[in-house]
Amino acid sequence: MSSSNDIRATFLDYFRRNGHEVVESSPLVPRNDPTLMFANSGMVQFKNVFTGQEKRGYQRATTAQKCVRAGGKHNDLDNVGYTARHHTFFEMLGNFSFGDYFKEQAIEHAWTLLTRDFGLPKDKLLVTVYSEDEEAPVYWKKVAGLPDSRIIRISTSDNFWRMGDTGPCGPCSEIFYDHGDHIPGGPPGSPEEDGDRFIEIWNLVFMQYEEGPPGTRVPLPRPSIDTGMGLERFAAILQGKHDNYDTDTLRALILASAEATGQEPDGQWKTSHRVVADHLRAGTFLMADGVLPSNEGRGYVLRRILRRAMRHAHMMGAREPLLHRLVPALTRQMGAAYPEILRAEALVVETLRLEETRFRSLLERGLGLLAEESGKLGDKGTLPGDVAFKLYDTYGFPLDLTQDALRGEGKSVDTKGFAAAMTEQKQRARAAWAGSGEAATETQWFDLKEKLGATEFLGYSTESAEGSI
Ligand code: ATP
Ligand code: MG
Ligand code: MG
Ligand code: MG
């Protein structure tokens, strides 16, 4: 069986042998892009290379990139524990050509690596192409011998990539693996595509245009390639599993969670173990890259992730801080590939322990209030916004934690009411300050806080021009 560590190494080595520079993952906090919360794809660190603003000493690169998708345009937080294929933190393996090789060779590399080096059966693979891209289907037939029935034309934005409102863009072609007809779900483009039978493993982006003001698009003189493959999804296939959470790395974390809580890994707490495993990984990697829990911006996204995991640990019966005890299981699995988590281990353990200690008593009381209020609602009811706000304000329950808790009962939160309660509280606070006759500096302080406070919601709603494939 190939371990995740072997698969990563084999991938990078294939592209190294084919003239690519092996480049380290960039940190999760993007250095050059304030509009992007976290690195969420392999191309992020190369954005300026693709646009030509920056030159590197190579024209081909390959990476295993740390990615977090828990906010902004790509938010997979709510998928965790519910689909077989989504994580908040995952590794994206990729190969990049900066004006060097293009479509045909990118397809050739992907196909060779998958079917020859990794030995995947050809008849389990199918691909999508953008409906207006006439070249990609030709190459798929030529290189892979795929019949038309396995080259699916998609006309939505899923198969057309853009770096932002303007700039490089182009069609994509995605490779899917069919896990078999015993799993519900239909092929991409069909009404049942949301199932987990056909799993997208690799996205090949063909950057071939430069977009200007709306409606203007010119061909790039030297088109580029950007690809991304999810290591966990690929490992599932190679390890004979359907589900990412059954692969070596995540399974080790689930077993650690099972041992620490005394709850069966695959019993009634299966989802909770998955959430704990995933969020522990995201939390550890974020802290190792310098993000600490806080009430704003990136730190608040981290806090939200950790608190969700803490609620699940609590549900499984943990009455003492739990997450920090699982860190060694993670460093054992991933410390060799990412030494930063070894270096940060002590800090991560201590931060988790403190964060969970502080949240525990609030959590218990907040869950009591939530149970009481939820009991007053009928089936599939909606929790009033002011209750969700009280949970947020008094008990430190991020909105999404309350939503996650209610989701299991088929209930939801009145989010408009929540936002209104939040605004009202800010106005009250402002009025109280104004009434106290304090100097103008305080008013300024509130203006500033309001402005900064907005970042708290980045994780829910900001639609920024995020570069990701
Ligand atoms: P999906 O449609 O399954 O959500 P995506 O189209 O959003 O995936 P891309 O942006 O194309 O994903 O990213 C490239 C690859 O990264 C995907 O083909 C997949 O293998 C992997 N990937 C994307 N999101 C996740 C995630 N949340 N967890 C694990 N792997 C992921
Ligand atoms: Mg997605
Ligand atoms: Mg997709
Ligand atoms: Mg995709």
TrEMBL record:
- Give the UniProt keywords, A-Z: Aminoacyl-tRNA synthetase, ATP-binding, Coiled coil, Cytoplasm, Ligase, Metal-binding, Nucleotide-binding, Protein biosynthesis, RNA-binding, tRNA-binding, Zinc
Name the EC number(s): 6.1.1.7
Give the first-level EC class, as a single word.
ligase
Domain Alanyl-transfer RNA synthetases family profile: start-end pairs: 2-469
| Top-level lineage group | Bacteria
Cofactor requirement:
Zn(2+)
**UniProt KW Transcription keyword:** no
Tell whether Transport is among the UniProt keywords: no
Cellular localisation: Cytoplasm
What this protein catalyses is: tRNA(Ala) + L-alanine + ATP = L-alanyl-tRNA(Ala) + AMP + diphosphate
Q: How is the cofactor bound here?
A: Binds 1 zinc ion per subunit.
This entry's Gene Ontology molecular function terms read: alanine-tRNA ligase activity
Report the function annotation for this chain.
Catalyzes the attachment of alanine to tRNA(Ala) in a two-step reaction: alanine is first activated by ATP to form Ala-AMP and then transferred to the acceptor end of tRNA(Ala). Also edits incorrectly charged Ser-tRNA(Ala) and Gly-tRNA(Ala) via its editing domain.
About its domains, the entry says: Consists of three domains; the N-terminal catalytic domain, the editing domain and the C-terminal C-Ala domain. The editing domain removes incorrectly charged amino acids, while the C-Ala domain, along with tRNA(Ala), serves as a bridge to cooperatively bring together the editing and aminoacylation centers thus stimulating deacylation of misacylated tRNAs.
Give the UniProt family note. Answer: Belongs to the class-II aminoacyl-tRNA synthetase family.
Q: What is this protein called?
A: Alanine--tRNA ligase
Ranked from the top, the taxonomy reads: Bacteria, Pseudomonadati, Pseudomonadota, Alphaproteobacteria, Acetobacterales
